[in-house]
Write a structure and sequence with these properties.
alpha+beta, 5-stranded antiparallel beta sheet, 4-stranded antiparallel beta sheet, 10 helices, 13 strands, 28% helix, 19% strand
């Protein structure tokens, strides 16, 4: 499932290429009848909070999207792609696909690196024997929503949530979410207050979007290792200093994710190690997806457990795990 950095970068892509433009909004697969409520309106704002994307239209309504496990956006037209997004062939969201480097679909767009400008979906010309493809391209597959301007198009497939919401509903959704480091200024205090109210294990609390927004399985495992914390310690047993350090680490890791398009969680890498990490997830993390492999710090075998139906990775020695 895309984590917070990806959704912020998707929002940035919409802000760059769609905000201020009038859109045709349609549902090629016919499953989103509310598209008509937004059709012909201008997008005034695009923003993310945690894993939730909001596209605000001049009608006062917003398109609210949560990609879930299978959701993804495809962009085409007069849009810019950085190297990371280009490797994903213009797709932003889901974490599985063919023909890309390992972990490439963690990405989304931002103004980094040398941008490339195209009138075609990445890889489209190769799929058609090198012949140009007219804009806009025909919808491919089960497109839930298509947003089309005079020179850009975005296709959404497979989201968990795709709905038109009014301002009251937007406010209710945001009020229910935990703090996001890139939204507002009181996130740290809100995080501490919400953690203090739960005795659930910290490994579960970090995945609870009502406590903190945007953290998923990868960041959860890596943050706990970096803090040398057992995932099974009751959240409300941790002191403020520990919790503030966790929050500040999330702030830093999220900013790196937004900047690079990858969940880079290892410190002190050489230039060569960073290049390897950007190209391959196996060289990117301390514990995530490394079950049975030696800990990069102490050599103890990394353990994989299950917590609330999600895989949990940790080093039993470095993180002092006792249950």
């Amino acid at each position: 499932m895309p984590e917070g950095h990806s959704v912020h970068r998707i929002a940035a892509q919409f802000a760059r290429h769609f905000v201020g433009k009038t859109c045709q909004v349609m549902s090629p697969q016919g499953r989103f009848g509310d598209a008509r409520l937004l059709d012909g309106h201008r997008i005034d704002r695009a923003y993310a909070v945690g894993k939730h994307l909001f596209l605000e239209f001049d009608s006062g309504d917003s398109l609210h999207v949560h990609l879930g496990i299978y959701g993804a956006w495809d962009f085409a037209g007069d849009v810019q792609f950085d190297d990371t997004a280009a490797s994903a062939r213009g797709r932003m969201g889901q974490t599985a696909g063919k023909g890309t480097v390992v972990g490439a679909h963690e990405d989304s767009l931002a103004s980094i690196g040398a941008p490339r400008r195209t009138r075609l979906r990445i890889g489209e010309s190769e799929q058609h024997g090198g012949h140009p493809v007219e804009f806009p391209p025909e919808p491919i597959g089960q497109v839930r929503v298509r947003l089309l301007t005079t020179d850009t198009v975005a296709d959404l497939r497979g989201p968990t949530v795709c709905e038109v919401v009014d301002k009251t509903r937007v406010a209710a959704i945001l009020d229910d979410l935990g703090p996001d480091p890139l939204v507002g200024t009181d996130g740290e205090d809100r995080f501490l207050a919400r953690v203090a109210r739960t005795a659930t294990p910290i490994g579960r609390a970090l995945m609870n979007q009502k406590i903190v927004a945007g953290i998923g399985n990868v960041y959860r495992a890596e943050m706990l290792f970096r803090a040398r914390l057992s995932p099974f310690v009751p959240a409300n047993s941790l002191d403020d200093e520990t919790l503030r350090a966790l929050w500040n680490d999330w702030v830093g890791l999220l900013k790196i994710g937004v900047k690079t398009g990858q969940m880079l969680t290892m410190d002190g890498m050489t230039a060569a190690q960073k290049r390897a990490a950007l190209a391959n997830r196996d060289d990117r993390h301390w514990v995530y997806r490394r079950a049975g492999e030696p800990c990069r710090v102490c050599g103890t075998a990394i353990v994989m457990d299950i917590m609330e139906a999600r895989k949990l990775y940790f080093c039993p020695k470095c993180q002092g795990v006792s249950r």
